[in-house]
Amino acid sequence: MNLQPPQPIRSGTNNNVLRCPMVNCPFYCRSYCNYEGHLETRHFCIDCANYMPDSESHECHKPGQRMGYVDAGAKLDLTDFYEYSRSHGGSMISYKYKHSLNKPDIEATFAEVEPATSKLLKELYAIHTLSKVEISIGVQMEKEVIEENGSKGYKQALIYFKSLHHELETPASIHSILLQSASDIIEKKNTFVENGSGWNVQRIESFEIKLGEIRLFANSKASGHLQMPFKHRQGYTRFQEYNRWC
Ligand SMILES: [Zn+2]
Ligand SMILES: [Zn+2]
């Protein structure tokens, strides 16, 4: 048994066939996303959080402990957040801020939610220890457009800016994770505004934290981003596509 996710064996001219490295397992596929799904269903035990040749014949010594879940089945204090989505059998969960955000910008939003966010992260750290964290902020944006008849109009879009994935290694790192995430997001927003010809921030719509097993974030490049009609689009906006992991 193994705590680290087994890496696929890559072959093929474009390196695009991924074979499962587990003994006697014939599985192969072409996307990392499918590979991860296979690992989850065939080789991972959510109770002890180990990988094994065949999870069906595995006799778990930690039944019911759900160590592979972000919250390990524990009851969290969800005063300020609610569980927004749960995927990969609970080994990735996102929490959304419950209260309305009436701050005008990203900086002020981070300042407002920091106490509640730190509290939730501390609680999750106590349950699950090591995990990766991603923050995402939904921003309602607007730009002026000229209609066909020549009159002025406004175009609106809800755009999600996401931080990079930061490792939650100690409770003491939470403050710097939040600072770093704020800076990631502001940078992406600025790039978007600079390249997006005239978009302005109208209001901050949502604040989410996604937490997961480190392995699930290991190949974050595998998560797709919507093509944007301008340059410098490296991984930051996904028009209303937020809850699609693969
Ligand atoms: Zn396999
Ligand atoms: Zn087990």
Question: Which SSEs are present, and which pair or pack?
Answer:
Layout: E1 9-11, E2 17-19, E3 28-29, H1 32-43, E4 44-45, E5 50-51, E6 81-87, E7 92-97, H2 106-128, E8 131-146, E9 152-162, E10 166-168, H3 174-195, E11 200-212, H4 214-217
Antiparallel strand pairs: 1-2, 2-3, 4-5, 6-7, 7-11, 8-9, 8-10, 8-11
Bound molecules: zinc ion (ZN) (2 copies).
Residues 20, 22, 25, 27, 38, 42-43 line the site of one zinc ion (ZN).
Biggest sheet details: 6 strands, antiparallel
Radius of gyration: 20 Å
Shape: globular
Structural class: alpha+beta
What is the N-to-C succession of helices and strands? Answer: EEEHEEEEHEEEHEH
Mean pLDDT: 82
Total number of β-strand segments?
A: 11
Beta content comes to 25-35%
Characterize the structure shown.
The protein has helices at 32-43, 106-128, 174-195, 214-217, and strands at 9-11, 17-19, 28-29, 44-45, 50-51, 81-87, 92-97, 131-146, 152-162, 166-168, 200-212. With 246 residues, the chain is an alpha+beta fold. Residues 219-246 have low confidence and may be disordered. Helix 2 (106-128) packs across helix 3. The chain has two domains: 9-57, no CATH class; 81-222, Dna Ligase, domain 1. Strands 6, 7, 8, 9, 10 and 11 form a six-stranded antiparallel sheet that branches. The protein has a three-stranded antiparallel sheet with strand order 1-2-3, covered by helices on one side. It starts with 8 loop residues before the first strand and ends in a 29-residue tail after the last helix. A hairpin with a 5-residue loop joins strand 1 (9-11) and strand 2 (17-19). The longest helix has 23 residues, at 106-128. The protein contains four helices and eleven strands; from the N terminus they run E-E-E-H-E-E-E-E-H-E-E-E-H-E-H. 25% of the residues lie in helices and 28% in strands. The relative contact order is 0.15. The structure holds zinc ion (ZN) (2 copies). Residues 20, 22, 25, 27, 38, 42-43 line the site of one zinc ion.
